[in-house]
Amino acid sequence: MVVISYVRAAVSATASAIWALSLRRWGLLSLGSSLLYLWNISTLSSRRRNSDNSPCPEHGPLLRIMYGLFSTWLAERVLGHLLHTRPDEPQAEQIGGTLPSVMGPRELRIKVVPILGAAFGGNYAYLIWDEDDPDRRAIVVDPADPYPVLRAAEEERLNVEVLLTTHWHFDHSGGNATFAREVPGLRVVASDRERGRVPALTERLADEQTIAVGRLLVTAHSVPGHTLGSAVFQISSSAAPAAPHAAFTGDTLFCGGCGRLFEGSSLQLHASLRRLRTRLAPNCQVFSGHEYADMLLTMAVRSDPSNLAALRKLRQVRDLRLRKQPSVPSTMAEECSFNPWMKATPLDLARLCGCEM
């Protein structure tokens, strides 16, 4: 009986300790989430907040509430549970049934992986590798739904070493934690302007800082606007310096448009787009984070029927989409010829972004 009493006491004490630990854990999670929620809301642009007095869009109360929740642990649990593909289930069909596609020279091979179904308008993650690398080292960009990208890497017999996150929004960074768990030693990289909102982050890159993955060179470009920490990652190969570089633009630059202003001002966005025009070569290929080309090019043609370059590109895009191919990439030369956002003045950008003047 004495032994049984001791066992019961031990079990009771253990259960109490687990319960206390659980309460403490949930308390810490709640506190951390509350602070992150307040920080997220504080980063939303507003005329009163911007020190440069530049025009910004007004955000309604509902958007502010949702934006505050967007990157908390709750969003990751809820959205991840609803949208992430399970390891043993087929991937949700992308908008238009987009198929994965491999392109580029051997020295800079790129696989486009459609992810997240239709939830955010058709997201793209990317795998980049050097076909002649004996170690099959690879880079992944924005694998917000991790398992389809992990399967794609396995199909290509790749060893993913670096994960690049263009910005903190869930539909770009929501798979980081799972990817890092599945790939021990993974380097998770983002802009040094990201402040604690990119999951599993291990490295921050300053503007124009470069890292190497084998013969692949990754250069970060700081492009505040869509978010304050947005980055474009330019990737080239030291084995083929004359080959066109690839720029992974996230939600900063799309074919025929650019991302909505959430945290930055129209002046910041204008400076970021001008920075890309200056730094990226005309033949640099642009790989954006979403399949928005048809919609944005249609808007460009409707707003300016004389924009014949946009009309030609729209026809090309629709032909690709009919064949279930991704519309990416465009080139910087193309974007400068037909993208109204790339040609806009600061005042034009403010109007396009819906900012008050």
Describe this structure in words.
- The chain is globular and about 65 Å long.
- It starts with a helix and ends in a 5-residue tail after the last helix.
- It contains 12 helices and 15 strands.
- The model has no long low-confidence stretch (mean pLDDT 87).
- By secondary structure, the protein is α/β, with parallel strands linked by helices.
- β2 and β3 form a beta hairpin.
- The strands form 3 sheets. Strands 1-2-3-4-5-6-7 form a 7-stranded mixed beta sheet, covered by helices on one side. It has a 6-stranded mixed beta sheet with strand order 8-9-10-11-14-15.
- The relative contact order is 0.12.
- It has a single domain (95-352), classed as 4-Layer Sandwich (Metallo-beta-lactamase, Chain A), CATH 3.60.15.10.
- It has helices at residues 2-43, 61-69, 73-83, 146-155, 170-173, 176-182, 266-279, 293-303, 308-322, 332-338, 340-343, 346-352, and strands spanning 101-103, 109-115, 123-129, 137-141, 159-164, 187-191, 203-205, 210-213, 216-222, 231-237, 246-250, 253-254, 257-258, 285-288, 330-331.
- Its cofactor is Zn(2+).
